[in-house]
Design goal:
Elements (H helix, E strand, L loop, with lengths): L8 H14 L7 E6 L11 E6 L5 H8 L4 E4 L10 E6 L7 H10 L5 E4 L5 E6 L6 H15 L6 E3 L16 E2 L12 E2 L6 E2 L1 H10 L4 H16 L13 H16 L3 H14 L15 H29 L11 H6 L6 E4 L3 E3 L1 E7 L5 H14 L14 E5 L4 H11 L7 E4 L1 H7 L8 H16 L6 E5 L1 H4 L12 H12 L3 E7 L11 H4 L3 E6 L13 E9 L8 E8 L5 E6 L7 H12 L4 H8 L3 H13 L12 H10 L13
Parallel strand pairs: 13-17, 13-18, 14-15, 14-16, 16-17
Antiparallel strand pairs: 1-2, 1-3, 3-8, 4-6, 4-7, 5-6, 9-10, 11-12, 18-19, 19-20, 20-21
Helix pairs in contact: 1-2, 1-5, 4-6, 4-9, 6-7, 7-8, 7-9, 8-9, 18-20, 18-21, 19-20
């Protein structure tokens, strides 16, 4: 354990006061670390850590400087501001603290490198009171991007706003100078003695507190550094081939405004043509493709993080008093409000939150995939009109990749490029499984949506198939356990997406789990088992589509009988109708037309030994209903579908005739 500081009590108190002002954080909680008596110094200190729900006091800071109880501070405060930010670099081997400090010093950046408790590094920047946490995070992310740390560092504060689907009090960070000057957690000087005495650190840190005007200058400085061309011996070039190519990519994006795909191609050319004149490390050859892909991914992530931070800061900047947002009825009536748009006329708007549920095996996934294809292609879905093409994103939670491919290919001969899919098998094999109940996992999908928007592919409709396979770890019958998930869905709606959640039916026949899920829904679709009195149409998904909840107007029709079956081309398609079927004598004649293919009414009457007048009346009615063609009578697709439903056991169907 670090030894006691030789300072006198009054000197400790003064230093504690200065540190307390410099690292002013949350009043709601702090971290306390009690080291083990046997813990060795200058290594990863062992001990017991806990969070206490109170503000840090001067007594806590004095105990910290004496090496008795370590203190941890939460940077973000209750008003979503922060007076310091930190890049937490958890790299313990081959981390050159001095080189890191020299690089920052040479670039004239107001940042300080401190050795962390675990042996990694904390890179601090300090801000005037009132600086938003979102801005602090954005600047730290920009600095981290320029430093090009091999393992992705953590940024403190960890959130732009308290309660943004994260902890309500924030995350704490172990403070430097535990044990005073006799510490392992010291600031690293770029020149001279490596360890900076506490007094020197305080002096320089206090001088480097950034004002509002200096924040703007710093942000521009970081942009300039990231986009500056590489020259032999420049700060960025010293750190390797990866950094050289990263900077080139940043320049292409920020200056030339190129897309990620174009940047990737350009970096491939630069990488192949680079020589030791550009950087000595190119004597070892070019980087492999996986490293280039990682560089582009880093560029995309930083860009997405910056966009999210700017969006969060914009939200904070417009967090007006509620009294200023009250509107009287005439003002609301005259207000210019963007109208929602029908994706599927009558029941699916953009933006909205919707659900479709059914028992297992009823055909939810086939229905959802078909809807996604229809929306992407601008084709009507059953009796419901789809006025135009829309971008769709289908997030799969459980299907094997081969099965997903088979279903998509079976449903459409021409697959639309604006229908995007996130297959669960690829997520499991090449990344981490998704759990949309966890805010951190929701951020992965947020990043995906930002990336798609950057590429001009904003998803108008997002389908989650299904809630059970994409989420876990909560009691789905507990209304309060759904807070994070439901709040996120509302946020997605406010960002302009139509959301469709695919869910299971419970034992009662309603949607499974807590009823609160339906409270936020604009439309709820139920796929029911058809009436037992209805004739079985043959193999394939078969159900009645009902609306158990809609807002404002009711869809027309209110229910549809749907049956998925192969058509003449062999592709699967939906046969649908909106009326209950009742067999008539004319239907008997329809089946005979399909079986015998007669030359006309006289021929058919003779074959089945029925009166010519009766057969003639039947043919007129069947033709009027669109079930047969004019003489010679032949069944239309609609007629074949009706006959299949009414006469499923007829031996004709066993011949395997296509229809």
């Amino acid at each position: 354990m670090p030894g006691k500081s030789p300072k006198l009590g009054s000197e400790i108190q003064i230093s504690a006061q200065r540190l307390m002002a410099l690292f002013r954080g949350s009043d709601a909680a702090l971290g306390r670390f009690t080291p083990s008596p046997t813990s060795p110094s200058r290594t990863k200190v062992e001990g017991k850590a806990k969070t206490e729900k109170r503000a840090a006091t001067l007594v806590d800071w004095e105990a910290h400087l004496r090496g008795e109880i370590g203190i941890g501070i939460i940077p973000i405060r209750s008003d979503d501001t922060a007076s310091f930010g930190c890049i937490d670099i958890d790299v313990y081997e081959n981390l050159d603290h001095r080189a890191l400090a020299e690089r920052i010093h040479n670039a004239k950046l107001p940042a300080f490198v401190c050795r962390s408790k675990s042996g990694g590094a904390h890179v601090y920047m300090f801000y005037v009171d009132g600086t938003s946490a979102a801005k602090v995070r954005r600047l730290s992310q920009a600095l981290a991007s320029w430093l090009d740390i091999v393992d992705e560092p953590e940024i403190f504060p960890k959130q732009d706003r308290l309660g943004d689907r994260g902890p309500k009090i924030g995350n704490w960070l172990n403070m430097p100078y535990f044990g005073g000057d006799e510490t392992d957690r010291y600031a690293v000087q770029p020149t001279g003695e490596k360890r900076a005495p506490l007094s020197r650190f305080l002096e320089f840190a206090e001088q480097a507190i950034l004002s509002a005007g200096e924040l703007v200058e710093l942000e521009q400085r970081l942009v300039d550094l990231a986009s500056s061309p590489n020259t032999p011996g420049s700060d960025y070039a010293k750190s390797g081939r990866n950094s050289l190519l990263y900077t080139a990519g940043a320049q292409l994006k920020s200056v030339a405004g190129l897309s990620n795909a174009t940047v990737r191609k350009a970096l491939d050319v630069i990488n192949r043509e680079a020589s030791p004149k550009d950087h000595p490390n190119f004597a070892d050859g070019a980087l492999d493709t996986s490293e280039l892909d990682a560089i582009v991914q880093s560029l995309r992530k930083v860009e997405g993080d910056q966009q999210k931070s700017r969006a969060a800061e914009a939200r904070r900047a417009t967090d007006l008093p509620l009294s200023s947002l009250v509107m009287n009825a005439p003002a609301l009536a005259k207000a210019e409000v963007p109208e929602s748009e029908w994706i599927v006329e009558g029941w699916l708007r953009r933006p909205s939150i919707n659900m479709i549920f059914a028992e297992r095996g009823r055909g939810k996934t086939f229905w959802s995939l078909s809807l996604a294809l229809s929306v992407a292609q601008g084709f009507d879905f059953g009796p419901y009109k789809i006025p135009q093409k829309w971008n769709t994103l289908y997030i799969d939670g459980e299907m094997p990749l081969a099965d997903l491919k088979e279903r998509i290919v079976s449903l459409s001969e021409v697959l639309p490029p604006n229908m995007h899919m996130l297959p669960s098998e690829l997520v499991y094999r090449k990344a981490r499984p998704l759990n949309i109940n966890i805010p951190k996992q929701q951020e992965r999908i947020d990043q995906l949506l930002f990336d798609m928007e950057n590429n001009g592919q904003h998803p108008d409709l997002i389908i989650f198939d299904n809630l059970s396979s994409l989420g876990g770890g909560i009691d789905e019958n507990d209304n309060s356990a759904l807070d994070d998930q439901l709040q996120w869905f509302v946020e997605l709606r406010h960002r302009g997406h139509a959301i469709l959640l695919v869910h299971h039916a419970g034992k009662s026949g309603t949607q499974r789990g807590a009823s609160r899920k339906e409270d936020l829904m604009d439309t709820v679709v139920e796929l029911r088992k058809p009436d037992d009195q209805q004739p079985y149409p043959g193999p394939g998904a078969w159900f009645e589509m009902h609306f158990s909840k809609t807002r404002s107007m009711s869809p027309e029709p209110l229910w549809v009988d749907m049956h998925l079956a192969p058509g003449k081309s062999g592709m699967l398609g939906w046969r649908w109708h909106t009326q209950k079927i009742k067999k008539t004598n004319a239907d008997e004649t329809l089946m005979e037309i399909i079986r015998r293919e007669p030359g006309g009414p006289v021929d058919l009457a003779k074959q089945i030994e029925r009166p010519k007048q009766t057969i003639g009346d039947h043919l007129k009615q069947l033709e009027l209903d669109g079930l047969i063609t004019k003489p010679p009578p032949r069944a239309t697709d609609l007629g074949i579908e009706r006959a299949q439903r009414l006469f499923p056991s007829n031996e004709f169907w066993s011949r395997g005739e296509p229809f």
